[in-house]
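Deliverable D4.2, example record:
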Amino acid sequence: MSSLRNRQGPPPEQLWKSWDRKARKQGFHSTIYSSDGSQYKGEWKNDKKHGKGIYIWKSTGDFYEGDFANDARNGFGTLTVKTPNGKFQRQYAGGWKNNMRHGYGNLFFSDNEYYEGEFYADKRNGWGRMFYADGSTYEGQWLDDKRHGTGMLRLANDNRYEGEWRDNKKHGHGKFFYVTRGQLMEGLWVDDICKAGEMKDFGRDQAILPTPYPIPDLSLAQPDQVLAEAEATFLATDG
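Output generated by the structure prediction step:
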């Protein structure tokens, strides 16, 4: 009797389990449409987009091509958007985490304005370089999509500011080089304005449009005390 049971083998699998297993998306699949008409073509794992793939949004025509993990953009990928005139323009290429820009990447605002650097939670955060449409560039630290920390802004005419920033404005200790006229303003800046500083000649002999006369040498009796008082007055609430 026992030998007969052994020859019969395991009981057959229930049909619903077999159908469920076959219906699961695993490995590479051709185009699959979501309920809103958007399309995905690529790799799957356990019914989730996982691996390399392309996702096309039905509502906008924008598309993402790159890495997926656990049904979200994770890894490296490129987002291309459809412009109002019907053309396609690459908007971002770089790292992703949970459908947000994360890590190092390049963000394109237009053909002649773009950012390259670090991102965190979909915003420019960390170190980065911004190329503006007017020909100026900024290289330095960012926080929540704003210039914040230390960095250098170089204008199209080569004049430049080197120093501290807060909320997209010159704020803290900094130097502004007026290369075109051969002068330097060094001091304390608050909300883009120099509140306490010293203007002096710097490379005046090589300047394109030098000032008619050099700046005479002047000195304060207690320059450190003057600067300390300015810091206490204007930076006291920075925290």
